[in-house]
Amino acid sequence: MQPIQVQGVHHITLTGADRRSAIDFWQGVLGMPFVFEQPNLDAPEENHLYFDPGDGRLITIFTHEGRKPSGRPAPQGPGCVHHLALTVSRAVFAQAAQGLKARGLAHSGPKDRGFMDSIYFREPLGLLIELSCWRFTPPEGFDHARVLAEAHRLRVARGAPAIADEHVAEAIAALAAARGR
């Protein structure tokens, strides 16, 4: 039997608190345009807010006026979401820590992930949010996943513990060469 072939993430839906806290965070802090709202068609007592994270997909939030932000870390056991990673530009990443601090949001500070940089913080309901910034641009005709798959192959062949800049650079060169560039 063939696997069900997915073509990408359609949307992500999170359970939020009240409408105002959702708009204040997703639009006010993260700058995601508020696209539209309607009732949650499976639970009409809830509202369903739609936000644009910037890539043509959607992040949606179920809200209910009886729920309030708790600020407690969200559960992280099996079956739970560990964190939501959002892409930001290098310029935005350089200002992220300062912007989070100005809003009173505690954060991890910049973290070196080898092929990307990250900063972590919790949104008002306790979900861990990661702002991620790529350290490389894929060659024309390739995406980040293809470059990382090749970099991983190189890393494993050399016995390195994690992908490093050298693996990414060689992967980009190999992919560009394969295209005749």
TrEMBL record:
Residues 8-134 form the VOC domain. PROSITE patterns: VOC (PS51819). Gene3D superfamilies: 2,3-Dihydroxybiphenyl 1,2-Dioxygenase, domain 1. Keywords: Dioxygenase, Oxidoreductase. PANTHER family: RING-CLEAVING DIOXYGENASE MHQA-RELATED (PTHR36110:SF4), RING-CLEAVING DIOXYGENASE MHQE-RELATED (PTHR36110). The keyword Oxidoreductase applies. InterPro entries: Extradiol_RC_dioxygenase, Glyas_Bleomycin-R_OHBP_Dase, Glyas_Fos-R_dOase_dom, VOC_core. It comes from the Bacteria. This is Catechol 2,3-dioxygenase. The keyword Methyltransferase does not apply. One of its GO terms (molecular function) is dioxygenase activity.
